[in-house]
Design the sequence.
């Protein structure tokens, strides 16, 4: 017998949240009471007892309303979200962090905003009063300002874990690597309408944050990748061609320099290190070969 239809799917990616996830699921149940919904929790290679907690939750709930997915190894939040979204049945999908800092009571008001006024395809929860350490708040602020300036998509919380979107958005926007941080930007580039609304943010009551100091640095590197994807969207061959041309140019310049040093030695003598003993020779040859392949 086919599963009963649901009006909304809740995707919760978790990693080492054994102390928090059961409470989050219970809050979702309470917040969406009276609606037909499903909760899909994706365990991203947890090393604590998260999976055991999810097994107990699954045993207490109908399979049509609760699903637990276990990734064999840590694949990252984007991969966990993608695994959950792939199993969603509803036309509206909600993403929610499993640490308990997002309030599930915000889900229903955010869903209403999809059709309110001019409507929206993605509603982003803006943690207006963020309950985190000053360093994490500062990193988040820098990241969001950088993304807004670099892409022209002006939001105050691009990387919010609490989002409500139409399922078609998730079907079109790729989720791999760390691209979940730029879901809003990529959705906007495909013509989807964005809306941001203040939401309540709570202090973490259990477990440990996965937000390290290096995350902001890598986020800025990922931003460069996203800028390239946007600039060459639908024209990947232009991006590869530009990269190939840059490598060919660098290799040619390096070989020209090596050739000039050899010629100077032949004409004027003096000390000279053979080309076969110079690392630059290998780098130049490699750049030329890769450039030729990409062109």
Sequence:
């Amino acid at each position: 017998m086919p599963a009963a239809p649901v009006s909304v799917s809740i995707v919760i990616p978790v990693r080492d949240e054994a102390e928090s996830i059961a409470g989050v699921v219970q809050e979702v149940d309470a917040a969406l009471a009276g609606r037909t919904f499903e909760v899909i929790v994706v365990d991203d290679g947890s090393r604590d007892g998260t999976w055991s907690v999810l097994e107990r939750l699954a045993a207490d709930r109908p399979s049509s309303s609760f699903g637990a997915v276990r990734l064999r190894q840590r694949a990252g939040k984007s991969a966990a979200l993608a695994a959950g979204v792939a199993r969603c049945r509803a036309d509206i999908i909600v993403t929610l962090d499993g640490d308990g800092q997002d309030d599930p009571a915000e889900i229903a008001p955010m869903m209403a905003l999809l059709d309110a006024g001019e409507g929206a395809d993605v509603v982003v929860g803006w943690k207006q009063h963020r309950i985190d350490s000053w360093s994490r708040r500062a990193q988040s602020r820098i990241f969001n300002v950088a993304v807004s300036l670099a892409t022209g998509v002006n939001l105050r919380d691009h990387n919010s874990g609490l989002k409500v979107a139409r399922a078609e958005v998730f079907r079109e926007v790729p989720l791999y690597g760390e691209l979940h941080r730029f879901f809003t930007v990529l959705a906007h580039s495909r013509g989807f309408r964005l809306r941001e609304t203040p939401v309540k943010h709570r202090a973490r009551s259990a477990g440990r944050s996965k937000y390290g100091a290096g995350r902001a640095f890598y986020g800025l590197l990922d931003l460069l990748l996203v800028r390239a994807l946007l600039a060459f969207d639908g024209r990947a061959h232009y991006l590869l061609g530009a990269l190939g041309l840059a490598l060919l140019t660098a290799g040619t310049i390096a070989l020209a320099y090596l050739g000039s040093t050899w010629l100077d030695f032949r004409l004027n003598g003096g000390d000279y290190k053979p080309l076969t003993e110079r690392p630059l020779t290998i780098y130049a040859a490699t750049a030329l070969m890769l450039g030729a392949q990409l062109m």
